[in-house]
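During the reporting period the student researcher (J.K.) took over the structure-prediction task from the postdoctoral fellow and processed the backlog of single-chain submissions. One of the processed entries is reproduced below for the supervisory committee.
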Amino acid sequence: DALATWVASRIRKIARRARGAHWAAVQELPGVTVTVGDAQVRALLPGPVDEVAKVVSRLQIGGTDLEPDAPGPPSPGVPVIHVNAALEMTVGKAAAQVGHASMLYAAAHGLVDVPAFAVRDAAPDVWEALCRSVEAGEAVAVRDAGFTEVVPGTITCITTPPS
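J.K. obtained the following structure tokens:
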């Protein structure tokens, strides 16, 4: 099973961007698409990085910039993925790290169904408190392997349980 093999190894994610015909072509690959408002994201069945489907390998990796938003407080009852804003990660890197955070949280809590998550940037003063919650075993951290934008071992995201 591709997912079990991937989870048992060093998990890597690559975020790419597609529109139009390229987006339609990616829909033909095994995976799931989620839509929120006007935005869509597709998670493909994982596999080795060196065996990416040609239709995916042609897609843009970088250059996706989004305007900052102010989503307000998270909805009650959902875990919150806090992104280390001080790292100034690219959109693709942050998206991959949020993906890691959701999977690590689900695994740590024995979740079978994927819950909704809120995602929020964490300012440095908030980040310090979040790191203490990880040390206390109250939150789940993503420590990056350092293949791309950040130093190995850097905590990129911290997920806290629902309030």
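The committee noted the following: The mean pLDDT is 88.
J.K. will present the remaining backlog at the next meeting.
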